[in-house]
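Human: Here is a favour to ask of a fellow structure person. Comparing notes only helps if you start from a blank page. I am asking you to supply a protein in sequence and structure-token form. Write it directly below this note and I will take it from there.

Assistant:
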Amino acid sequence: MMAGVEVRRFGLEEKVALLARRLGLPVVTSFMGRGLLADQDAPLVGTYMGVAGLPEVTQLVEGSDGLFLLGEIVCDTNFAVSETKIDMRKTIQALDGQVTIGYHSYPRLPLAAVVDRMLERAGESRKTHSVKPQVFPHGLKADDATIAPTDIATAVNDLMAAHGKMPIASDMGDCLFTAMEIEHTALVAPGYYATMGYGVPAGLGLQAATGQRPLILVGDGAFQMTGWELGNCRRYGWDPIVLLFNNSSWEMLRTFQPESSFNDLDHWGFAEMAAGLGGDGVRVGTRAELKAALDKAVATRGRFQLIDVTIPRGVLSNTLQRFVAGVKRLSGVK
């Protein structure tokens, strides 16, 4: 089963988790569905990202003889990176008020009604499956080494293991690919349109709407666009923790167009600007400094905490490296 955004849109996460348990179906989310079922007792394996994802998750989805797409939008964001092209005619799709099986479509079937009827048919039994869930990195080595994006994911995983899960708002770029290496937790991100500048405002909206303290992942390029919205935190009492991926670069663009000099940005003093916006800022350049900054940030309430993380140019997360290599392979680019 692949769970998509409509599962959240129609408030069906608890029922879908129950259905998966009763049927013994391993569950994945799509890239756009990341964050679904994070707080449910569901047999959640990981997130399907085709060539960018973990091979075991990719093989599980693309090798399935009965792929059930539940509330899943069929679009390039979710499926264009398939290692082996998925034949949608051999899937079951419940989306947009209808169910499609092969060449047959059954209109006027709301997703909630489909899930309720399947729960009735499934009965009360609980089945199990043998697929192991995705393993996320833990145990950051707090030393004097420079910081890579995967180190940030590891540090966040350690933080949530110690202090509990935090909802995440992520911008576009390697910060979003890095989020795929963080333990399953609530996540909002611009997965469909892939627009920059979303992360900081989304994080503020998340805290305003839920009251939960969010973790914001944002690149330096996107922060130049909308990071200044943090100046509203003092007025409303918001205190997000902001991890700013600062490689002085449009690094996502550089990965596909390395010859373009416009990818190079200056290293702005974002940490020094935080005080003027009503928060606290610190610049970190080593893994030890990153851990210390996160520990201090989570213990400090009432003011936003901006951690300006210096990342060497050209250093990518493990997930983005797989994505770039996979896309080049599929397109025949060496």
In short: The chain has two domains: 2-122, 149-322. The radius of gyration is 21 Å. The CA atoms of residues 326 and 333 lie 10 Å apart. The mean pLDDT is 91.
